Amino acid sequence: DAFNGVILWKRPMGNWLNQFRRFRAGPANLPFRLVADGDRLFVTMDFEGPVHMLDASTGKDLKIFAGTENTKQIIYSEGKLTLLRDDEVGQMEKIDGFRRRGEFMKHHCHLMRVDVETGKTQWQSDVDDLVFPCMAQKDGRIFAQTPKRVFALDYKTGKQDWTMDFTSVLPISGGKIKTGEMQWEAPTLVAGDGIVYAADFKKSRAYQAETGKLIWEGSSTNGYNAPADL
Question: What is the pTM for the complete model shown?
Answer without folding.
Answer: 0.87
